[in-house]
Amino acid sequence: MESNRIDIKSLSLPELERELLEMGEKTFRAKQIYQWLHEKLATDFDQMDNLSKYLRRKLAERFVLTTLWPVDVKISQIDGTRKYLFRLSDGNVIESVWMQYHHGNSVCISSQVGCRMGCRFCASTLDGLARNLTASEMLDQVYQIQRLTQERVSHVVLMGSGEPMDNYDNVVRFIRLISGTPGLNISQRNITVSTCGIVPGIERLAKEKLQITLALSLHAPNDAVRRTLMPIANRYALKDVLEACRNYFEKTGRRLTFEYSLVRGVNDNLQEAGELARLLSGMHGHVNLIPVNPIRERDYVQSDRKAVREFQHYLETHGINATVRREMGRDINGACGQLRKSYLEEKEPGKNPEEKEDSGV
Ligand code: SAH
Asked: Which of 124, 135, 139, 211 is least surrounded, with the fewest CB atoms within 10 Å of its CB?
């Protein structure tokens, strides 16, 4: 993104007011502009027809109004889930997913272009991190989807590509903007941030006075198994991660979600269910079981239905709430980062050095 103009959609209303004052304008103009950006979802200063032409020109000189361009959409024939591929102003592409539930429409957004966490089963991380997304680029995933579907978005999950805690400031700014008024005013209780377990990030988030849900990607009942799946487990021990989660609950009163992707023969036997039940006993939260979504580059296999049911049953009968996540959009490359990856391979071949056989798994 060009650096000399200010990214207007990432500014809070008080920040925009200060900018307008500096420009010699009245502060009420800031509110009008803010409403254009965050309620009417304008994509160009020229759409702001209650501002003079002169002011619109001055705005365009001082600010940049970034928008994402939809380059592809895949619609699931099974459940109507839509997967969007957006192009950013610097040419990078990201993906976002729109899902319909009985409780409303949910958008799963990316927080980074790629990811550097290296989780073994995840497609988003195969080519590493390209860059962080700005708050406006996170907002625009929701705004564009609401424009394209013409339906109100009620829930947002930060479970697309990227590690939110690795882009902390922009993520928190995004949450405040999307839940604020004026703006889409999406309830913080309907916003979920998923993390691979970066302890200082969880501790910081606990102090932000937000009412969002924290989801922890657990995926294993002990450090040894977790380290085989998630490199971040070498950095933070489960004991400390769970301590940070406990503290998050105490500070915010928000129950946690523990995500557990079931991989056949790796983390899905009943002994592991037992270990998990002991690990989480007394924690305020529930387990979300996700049969792992296999990616081409790795040979991890989904646990079969029976193993998933038994694992869930074991947890339930040992005092741990557990649900099996409905798999949305299976037929459209549902797993994190898969659509972007296949797009890059098709449209920009040669950009992915990761084509070699992976024998280390
Ligand atoms: N970086 C964050 C959020 C992004 S991923 C995190 O680690 O939580 C959102 C969730 O999907 C995480 O729990 C992640 O571990 C999981 N996930 C990624 N790829 C998957 C796959 N192929 N199958 C099942 N779950 C996957």
From this structure: 211
* Rounded average pLDDT per 10-residue block, the chain, 361 residues: 84 98 97 98 97 98 96 93 96 96 95 98 95 98 97 97 98 98 98 98 98 98 98 98 98 98 97 98 96 89 95 98 85 69 69 33 25
Helix or strand (DSSP H, E) at 262: strand 256-262
- Joined together, the tokens standing for residue 222 give 């002990």
CA angle 267, 272, 273 (to 5 degrees): 110
Q: Which residue minimizes the CA distance to atom 14 of ligand 1?
A: 217
Q: Is omega for the bond preceding 294 within 30 degrees of 0, making it cis? A: no
Kindly state if the Cβ of 119 falls inside 6 Å of ligand 1: yes
Amino acid at 64: V
Cα separation, 335 vs 299, whole angstroms: 15
C-beta 303 within 6 A of ligand 1: no
